Amino acid sequence: MTSEQIQVSVITVCRNAEKVIRDTVRSVVTQTYSNIEYIIIDGASADNTLSAIKEAQSDSQSVRHINVVSEPDEGIYDAMNKGIKLAHGDYIYFLNAGDTLYDRYVVQNAVKHIVNTKADVIYGDICYIHPDGRKEIRKYGQSCAKKIYYLTGDCINHQAMFTRKTCYENELFDTAYKICADREWMMRICKKGSSFAAADMMVCNYSLDENSASIRNKAQSDKEAKMCIIRHFRMGYPVYWMFSFMRSNRILQNVLHTVYRMLYIRKNEE
Fold it and tell me: What does the domain layout of the chain look like in residue ranges?
């Protein structure tokens, strides 16, 4: 399959996102790659989200297949599953409302890596945008797709990943997880032998929202992360426990944070 034959389904889920959805949509519809299907799943917004989406759609330069669905859902992962069921593309990419593709060439570059590697999942780097406007590059290397990486308590951000649609067909997100369903899904397909390939490319601008569920409800997030390890990598639980203990100790937490930043964080040179 050549680059031009690969269709990419970009899925955005949102609810009451009128303040941020325009930039998200525009970053997709102005991509240089033309074989994109764009699916927007709106959770029956009560604000002007739909009007903002329609306004941003008018800026489309190459994306001709845009499907907007607005109806109640049972949370973000239920909405993501709806998007998967509607997708026709060979690969699926999730871009949350408020986040944006890094530049106009992201999908074009991702497809090149897909053709070259033939991997089930290709993933790149993301740009963290802090609430104060500060930007940092989050690097994801090949080691981030290994079992040990999950045991450290981390996982690849789903906005960094382009995934073959067949990986989702029998493996939807488990909506019993309210915060870590994407983490659990990654572990599940990793166990089943799906191939991952790190791509040396920037994928998205990721908004570090202090009101995100994983930050607001850290106890639930930690509980679900632990459930994921026990469910999929039970024999590695002592390693996960060790890292959890380090995070609970102020001194060890600082050491761990320093090592993490040395390995994975780079200054944004822009």
Answer: 7-267
| Of the candidates 42, 84, 40, 54, the residue with the CA atom closest to the CA atom of residue 182 | 84
- Give the side-chain half-sphere CA count within 13 A for 188: 15
pLDDT reported for residue 129: 94
Q: Which two tokens stand for residue 72?
A: 């109640």
DSSP letter at 191?
H
End-to-end CA separation in angstroms for the chain: 35
Q: Which of 50-64, 107-121, 228-242, 253-267 has the lowest mean pLDDT?
A: 50-64
CA angle 15, 18, 23 (to 5 degrees): 105
The token duo for 174 is 């488990």
pLDDT band at 3 (very low <50, low <70, confident <90, very high): low
Return the CATH architecture of domain 7-267. Answer: Alpha-Beta Complex (3.90)
Backbone angles phi, psi at 38, to 5 degrees: -110, 125
CA–CA separation, 53 vs 62, rounded Å?
16
Global pTM reads 0.95
Half-sphere exposure of 72 (CA within 13 A, CB side): 1
Query: Which of 129-133, 147-151, 172-176, 227-231 is least confident?
Result: 129-133
